[in-house]
Write a structure and sequence with these properties.
Strand order of the largest sheet: 1-2-3-4-5
Radius of gyration: 12 Å
Largest sheet: 5 strands, mixed
CATH superfamily: STAS domain
Number of strands: 5
CATH class: Alpha Beta
Number of helices: 3
Number of domains: 1
Helix content: 25-40%
CATH topology: Transcription Regulator spoIIAA
Order of helices and strands: EEHEHEHE
Strand content: 35-45%
């Protein structure tokens, strides 16, 4: 998986590409952790447009990010979710935990 970060005012967008699984936890954390501690960022959007697979460890990473961000007064949203990635998030009831669009 590749992760790239861009900022638009108080919103940071983390674009993911490829497989989002246990082997990519370091890449995901290195992209997201600085945003959690960045005082100018109020919202973090995780863009799944180029993600073709995610597993249960990816769900855990998203939950950990949500908890850290919430503790820092930030919101995490998920966008461009579709196909099998959407199915996994739906089965895990992530729509109750995140804004997904």
């Amino acid at each position: 998986m590749q992760a790239s970060v861009s900022k638009d005012g108080a919103r940071a967008i983390v674009k993911l590409a490829g497989r989002f699984d246990f082997n990519t936890h370091r890449d995901f954390r290195s992209a997201c952790d600085p945003l959690v501690s960045d005082g100018t960022v109020r919202e973090m959007t995780i863009d799944f447009d180029a993600v073709d697979y995610l597993d249960s460890s990816a769900l855990g990473m998203l939950l950990m990010l949500r908890d850290k961000a919430s503790g820092a007064g930030k919101e995490v949203t998920l966008r461009s979710v579709r196909g099998s990635v959407k199915q996994v998030l739906d089965i895990a009831n992530f729509s109750k935990l995140f804004k997904i669009f």
